[in-house]
Amino acid sequence: MKSIILIALIAVAFTARVQERNMAKVQADLAKSNYGKALLHLVELHSMAGGPVQELIDAIEELINDLEEELEELEFNFQVRTNEHNALVVSLEQDIQDAVIDVNNTQDTLDNLLYPRRAQIQDKIDSVLGYQEDNRKNYDEAILVREQEHEAFEAQVAELNDATASVDDALALLASLTNPSLLQIRRFQNTLKSIESKIRSRSRMAPMIKALISLASNQNFSNQDVLKNIVDALNEFRNAVVDQINDLTAQEAQDVIDHEAYLEQLDDEFHEFQRQIDRATVDLTATNEKIDSMVEFRDQRAADQKQYTAELELENNTYAEETDIYTNTKNEFTRELGVSEQALGLVKSVDFSNIKV
Fold first, then answer.
1. Of 79, 237, 101, nearest to 171 (Cα)?
2. Number of H helices, E strands in the chain
3. 19, 77, 95, 331: which could join 308 in a potential S-S bond, CB 3.0 to 4.6 Å?
């Protein structure tokens, strides 16, 4: 019986010593942090005041519950923030991708459609302007040539009229010859030579007048048959000259009609060229406006891309900072929760009246 009692006392003493050692370790662990020291002060003050142990237990349990709720709220808020972050990242990345596509597509349209179209329209305008310039040159040249031709016509008609007048003089002289003297014959021959001088060598009348001169040089003007032959030849020559004047006049009239028709044709072509230039200019203006609009859109989308990229970088940096804050706060809450649980275990121990901080 004494042996049993002794064993029981030894066991009680050993248990008390183990509990004392555990309390000392818990107390040392609590003292490692400011939060733990605060709890130890709370326990010490409560011990010194002699308050009910259950009241302190309830206070620490309430503190533990608060920490658990704060930790749960922290986890919830961070999860919400993570979801917002992920959604924003997806949205910004999509915005960046859309902006890149818009920039590339717009540049492709400019390079492969609008810029070549503008160059093509400008080339067409330049070509038609060249045609228009040639048209005016042809117009001015036609007027100059017509003036020269008309001057030549008037000179030729004047020449033929002079020749006609000279023939009339020659006919009148022949009509006055009854017994021609040598002087009269010379005068008649000189008249024929005057006609020859008035008829240009390239005229179709030149051979005829030369034949008349030859005839008059070798004939006997006392012979009436000879005179009749010469008069007939002169009349035939005069009629040929008049016919030539009529032909030249008719040809001049036709040349005027053809000239006016040609000028009208040139004017029609010029106006058609101008209409083509006007239409092309409208197209060019519209194309330039479209180019300006697309360049502005491209630049805006490039600026959007830059802005979205900056926003994405800022969001990633902000989220990284918030993640660090969350991690540190969670670790702090976890440490405080562990300290509080240790403090609760200490308060629930058999004796904590000797706790000193």
1. 237
2. 7, 0
3. 95
Quick one: tokens of 231?
């008069």
Cα gap 200→184, rounded to integer Å: 26
Amino acid identity for residue 89 in this structure: V
The mean pLDDT of 86-111, rounded to a whole number, is 97
pTM passes above 0.70: no
Q: What pLDDT shows up at residue 45?
A: 55
Distance CA 5, CA 9 (A): 6
Q: For the chain, give the number of residues.
A: 357
For 335, the token pair is 């440490």
Question: What is the pLDDT, as a whole number, of residue 336?
Answer: 79
**283 or 209: whose pLDDT is higher?**
283
What radius of gyration do the chain's Cα atoms show?
65
Q: What is the pLDDT of residue 240?
A: 86
Question: CB within 8 A of 69, min separation 6: which ones?
Answer: none
Mapped to the 3 state alphabet, what secondary structure does the chain carry?
CHHHHHHHHHHHHHHHHHHHHHHHHHHHHHCCCHHHHHHHHHHHHHHHHCCCHHHHHHHHHHHHHHHHHHHHHHHHHHHHHHHHHHHHHHHHHHHHHHHHHHHHHHHHHHHHHHHHHHHHHHHHHHHHHHHHHHHHHHHHHHHHHHHHHHHHHHHHHHHHHHHHHHHHHHHHHHHCCCCCCHHHHHHHHHHHHHHHHHCCCCCCCHHHHHHHHHHHHCCCCCCHHHHHHHHHHHHHHHHHHHHHHHHHHHHHHHHHHHHHHHHHHHHHHHHHHHHHHHHHHHHHHHHHHHHHHHHHHHHHHHHHHHHHHHHHHHHHHHHHHHHHHHHHHHHHHHHHHHHHHHHHHHHCCCCCCCCCC
Q: Phi and psi at residue 218, in whole multiples of 5°? A: -115, 10
Residue with tokens 């979205």: 308
Pair of tokens at residue 154 = 């008037």
pLDDT digit string, tens, across residues 280-324 = 999 999 999 999 999 999 999 999 999 999 999 999 999 999 999
Is the per-residue pLDDT at 208 higher than 60? no
